[in-house]
Every structure is written in C-alpha cells, then in structure tokens.
Amino acid sequence: GNTMQQVGGRIGSTAQVNSYRNTGQQVGGGISSAAQVNNYGNTMPQVNAVEGVKSKEKYNGPHPELAARLEKEILDTIPGVKWDDVAGLSEAKRILQEAVVLPLLIPEYFQGIRRPWRGVLMFGPPGTGKTLLAKAVATECGTTFLNISCSSLCAKWYGESERLTRCLFELARTHAPSTIFIDEIDSLCSARGSATEHEASRRVKSELLVQIDGLNNNSNNTPGKSVTLLAATNFPGNLDEALRRRLEKRIYIPLPDFKSRKELIKINLKSVMLAPGMDIDQVARKTEGYSGDDLTNICRDASLNGMRRKIAGKTTDEIKNISKSEILKIPVTMDDFLEALDKIHPTVSPEDIERHEKWYSEFGSS
Ligand code: ADP
C-alpha cells in the first residue's frame, strides 16, 4: 500500500494516477496462482499458497536481484474473482473466454492459424470492471497473475525500467502458464510528466514491444507454458500505432446498462438486509451514467445510512450501549439510496464516453 502511494506521489498529479492508486492498493499487484488455491484448498493461508508457487518454480534468469524485488513488490493475494462477481459485460467475457481462457485450457488446439492473440486490450472509462475482469480471467484459468501498472514500471525503479520490463516477462515465463496484467498502458505513450519521465517511458515502451513480439515467437510457445498479456487503459487514443497493433484484440468495457446496474447492485447488497419497500429497479433506473465503481460507492454509502441515523447525537458511551444485534438488524431503505444518490454523482463525463465510442468504432474488436 505505502509503496503504491509513493509512486502516485512521485509522478504526482493527475486525477487518473490517483484513481489508479486506489485500485493499486486494493489490487496490490501481484503474483499469485489460482491453481494453488485448487491444490491446497481454502484452508491454506494465501501467503503460503503464493510461497508454494515461488518455491516450485525458481527464477534463474539473468536478473535474480531485480526478480526477487519485483516478486516481492507485486506479490499479491490470489485474485479469487469469479465471472459471476463481474456484473454484466457478457460480450467482454465471451471475447476474453475465447481470446485468453480457452487457449490456456486447450493449448494444443490454438496453434497455427488458431494461434492466440498476441495481446488483449481492455479500454473504457475508469471504474467499469477492467481490473476485475483481468482477475476473473486469472482465476478462471488458474494461471499465475502478474499485475503491474505502467506508472510503477516507469517511476518506481527509476533508471531500471527497461530491465524491469524484461524481468517481468522472464518472471512470467518462470511461473507459466501466467497472465501479465498491465494497467494504465497508455501512460507509456503519452507525453505528460517531465522530460526524463518521458524518456523512461519511451524506453520501457520499446522494450515492451520487443517482449510482446517474443511472446508470439513459436519457440516460446510450448503448450501449457504460455504467457498471456492483458492490458487496460482509460485513454486508448493515447496509444501509438506500434503498441496498438500488438494489442490485437481490443475490447470495449462500457458503462453498465440498466440490466448490468441491477446485477451490480444485487451483488453489492448480497450481505445486507433490505427494507420491504426497497426497489432495486428504481435505483438502477436512476443511475444511468454511473460507473460500476460509482454504483459500488452508492451502495456502500446507502448501506451505512441506517447506522448513521441510529448513532446521531449519541455519545461514545451511549453508542457502546446499543446492542450489536439491534444495529445489525437495521435494514437498508429506499430513502437511504435516495440520500446517497443526492451526494454521489457520476464520475464519467458524456465527453469521455463519446471519446471511447469513437475509438471503438475505429479500432475496437467485436
Ligand atoms: P477499472 O479497472 O475498469 O478502472 P475496476 O475493475 O478496478 O475498474 O473496478 C473498481 C471497482 O468497481 C471494483 O472493485 C468493483 O467494486 C466495482 N465494479 C466496477 N465494475 C464492476 C462490474 N462490472 N461488476 C462488479 N463490480 C464492478
């Protein structure tokens, strides 16, 4: 967590970095293996499961020190995200299934003309489930999941970014079959930041292109030992042609439609009690233009309102005296939602949507 914050602090300033900093904290970035979950069962602490991966497949490439640091840095818990945890996005799930999951499950079939796509790009406004989908893919495939954001590739190891990029792919091969998820891939191409940062990102980008080409090299394509590249961006227009061409499959992750919003609200409210008059359809109707992340925030806020009312004006001692079961029994009401809706507004602008749709019609896959 702290390191991610430092990174955000160092490159500094944009809202985009900040929003990703949050994601980074939740995600942590990491190497983990869902296969280990299956092997060891749920009772095994996650850290041990990850250690299991590390001791099984030992890195013996040319950058042992960097690899050890990188492994530690992007060490993560097991994603454990299932397809059903991702609301809506059925088209994106279908494409990911075919482009990423199936080639890993039946590698023998996906040879020659059926070879998997070199890289898969998910683009769309922030908070729409791109990171969540990447985790679901890794969980579904039981692959090692290496999760890194481009801002950390460029900023965190100042001066070592190219080696770091190379090392990332070496690690991915060590832990194959694996999925590399690169968030904010656009930041490699955009010109913001200082001249040295720009230079660093330019070099990382050239290295990344070399590495992506290497993924496609047949001699590296041993069935069952594949490395899949998934990338995400909120600014697809910033990708230059060289990178865009290598991200062969480009999947649009739009804002949730009515049906998906309903699904998302239901997923979010799974663990809370609802008041009799609670109308999820109405909330879904009122939240057009909200992202999945916005909706999650609304659900969280609404579900806290009952407790807020209960403790309003009370002293700490008085609060201590309220029985726990009484608090747990407070249901979430429609008014709680209306109140939350008053406070929380959509974070994605119509211009953003237009920008994505335009890019989709020009470069998107279906
Ligand atoms: P992105 O990577 O597109 O910026 P994330 O996948 O990090 O967005 O989503 C942020 C949070 O918003 C998730 O952790 C989840 O709580 C919620 N969320 C967004 N989209 C969805 C979705 N389609 N289904 C379920 N939850 C979602």
Automatic annotation (TrEMBL):
Record-listed ATP binding positions: G124, P125, P126, G127, T128, G129, K130, T131
> What are the UniProt keywords, alphabetically?
ATP-binding, Cytoplasm, Cytoskeleton, Isomerase, Microtubule, Nucleotide-binding
EC class? isomerase
What does it catalyze? n ATP + n H2O + a microtubule = n ADP + n phosphate + (n+1) alpha/beta tubulin heterodimers
The EC number(s) attached to this protein equal 5.6.1.1
Is Cytoplasm set as a keyword in this record? Answer: yes
Can the keyword Nucleus be found in this entry's annotation? no
Main subcellular location of this protein, as a coarse class: cytoplasm
Where does the record place it?
Cytoplasm, Cytoskeleton
Name the family the entry cites: Belongs to the AAA ATPase family. Katanin p60 subunit A1 subfamily.
Q: Outline what the protein does.
A: Severs microtubules in an ATP-dependent manner. Microtubule severing may promote rapid reorganization of cellular microtubule arrays.
The protein's name in its UniProt record: Katanin p60 ATPase-containing subunit A1
Q: What is the lineage of its organism?
A: Eukaryota, Viridiplantae, Streptophyta, Embryophyta, Tracheophyta
Its gene name is KATNA1
Q: Which residues of the full protein are shown?
A: 229 to 594 of 594
